[in-house]
Amino acid sequence: xxxxxxxxxxxxxxxxxxxxxxxxxxxxxxxxxxxxxxxxxxxxxxxxxxxxxxxxxxxxxxxxxxxxxxxxxxxxxxxxxxxxxxxxxxxxxxxxxxxxxxxxxxxxxxxxxxxxxxxxxxxxxxxxxxxxxxxxxxxxxxxxxxxxxxxxxxxxxxxxxxxxxxxxxxxxxxxxxxxxxxxxxxxxxxxxxxxxxxxxxxxxxxxxxxxxxxxxxxxxxxxxxxxxxxxxxxxxxxxxxxxxxxxxxxxxxxxxxxxxxxxxxxxxxxx
Length: 271
Fold this sequence. Notes:
single chain, alpha/beta, seven-stranded mixed β-sheet, two-stranded antiparallel ribbon, 10 helices
């Protein structure tokens, strides 16, 4: 069993926290775009307040541990591992409560190359505890605006985790899925569940648009987010998103496995 101290060491060694791969330049650019209400950074969230760049920097310092100094404009950003651990503990508590009540859950990721295994293990644990893992709108078309123009994807589920795949793939179902920040996949899934008469999820677990899009619609949401994605943290501050775990979301996929084991163990969902 991985201890808290052991997980802290892993977070630092894998650069999931501490000095991370995300650059300060990336983060500050994201804060500027979010302050300008650029949809690419809002990812489904409609903030209630006015969030300027300094407001966002102060928030991200409080939630993630990044430097609050606006004069710090280059280099690699920093995530406080203590904040990551505290959020993982809170996530485990939320999953334990969901499992006790056998609440239906919906999981999805915009980072299937990196985070699919993390969410799939949570789906397995919750399913074994009696929760229904929902997969609405399987195969449904989703048109997403990207920097390359409008692209058509299909909503798919792998081990209970929602993701999108290119609709023009030569080998459908074989590629790991596309990276996206769009809230359209979760909106499509939730609309299909509602149209079918339910059940609707009591908890949505994911990242990017899956968390912000569902949270904006009033669903209980838990997710992971990097320091260059301010929307989930703004959603958490305003109450639209229930819980956000700050960490680098772009490291090797196997580096997230100790986090999964830690959360499942603390939630008493270990396989």
